[in-house]
Amino acid sequence: CLVDAGTGLLQEVVYLVSQGADPDEIGLMNIDEQLPVLEYPQPGLDIIKELTSPRLIKSHLPYRFLPSDLHNGNSKVIYMARNPKDLVVSYYQFHRSLRTMSYRGTFQEFCRRFMNDKLGYGSWFEHVQEFWEHHMDANVLFLKYEDMHKDLATMVEQLVRFLGVSYDKAQLETMVEHCHQLIDQCCNAEALPVGRGRVGLWKDIFTVSMNEKFDLVYKQKMGKCDLTFDFYL
C-alpha cells in the first residue's frame, strides 16, 4: 500500500522496481489501473480484493483509517512525505488543473486553508506525524520526496530490500538509471505546470509575509516532532 505526497512519481518508481519494468513500458499503460486507489469508488474494494498477490494499492488515507492488516504488520506500506511548502504549491496546481475540483481561489487563500487544515484528507501536519510515529515499524518504509532527487540510488536500494525483490549489481544499476529516466519524464512533462516536480518551487510563489506565517504555523504544529525536511537542494 502506498501513501504519499508524490503520488504519480512514487507509484511508477515502485511499479518499476517491483516488476522489473522499464519507463517505456509504463508510458504505454494506465498506471492507475495497476495501482488502484483504496478509497476511490472505482475500481472499488470488491475488485481490489480480487487482485492477485502481491497487490500494489495506492491511498492518501491517514494511518488510522488504513486496513487493519497494515496496523497488524501483515501488509507493507510505503509512505512518502514531501516538504510542505512545495507540497502546497503542487497541491494548489493540481486543484486548479482538474475540472472536477476547478479551484479558482488565489494561492494565498489555498495556502491559508492548508495551514488551517481545511483541505481534503484533513490536516497534513497530523497525517505526516502519524506515519512518522510508525516509521520504525518493520512493515513501514518512510521516504522523503526530496531524497528521490538527492540520492535516488539509495532510495531504489531501500525499495528493493523492502519489497523483497532480487537484483544483481548490474540489474540494480540499470534499474536506478530507469528510475532516473522516469523522474526526468515526470518532472518535465509538458502536461504538467512547469517545474511542479522540482524541489524548491515554493520560492517562486511564496511572498515574504506568507513564508513567515507558514514558518510560524509549521513550528507550532511540528515543533515536537523530530522529522525534518529539505526545503531546497
Can I get a quick summary?
Helices cover 50% and strands 6% of the residues.
Helix-and-strand structural type: alpha/beta
Overall mean confidence score, pLDDT: 87
Question: Any idea what the radius of gyration is?
Answer: 18 Å
Q: Name the shape in a single word.
A: globular
Could you tell me the CATH topology label: Rossmann fold
Can you identify the CATH superfamily? P-loop containing nucleotide triphosphate hydrolases
Distance between the termini: 28 Å
The level-1 CATH class: Alpha Beta
Major beta-sheet overview: 4 strands, parallel
List keywords for this structure.
Rossmann fold, 233 residues, 6% strand, 4 strands, four-stranded parallel beta sheet
Characterise the protein shown here.
This protein has a single domain (7-222), classed as P-loop containing nucleotide triphosphate hydrolases (Rossmann fold). Helix content is 50%, strand content 6%. The chain has helices at residues 7-19, 23-27, 31-34, 45-50, 68-71, 84-97, 107-115, 124-132, 145-150, 152-163, 169-187, 208-222; strands at 2-4, 58-59, 77-81, 140-144. It has a four-stranded parallel β-sheet, with helices on both faces. The longest helix has 19 residues, at 169-187.
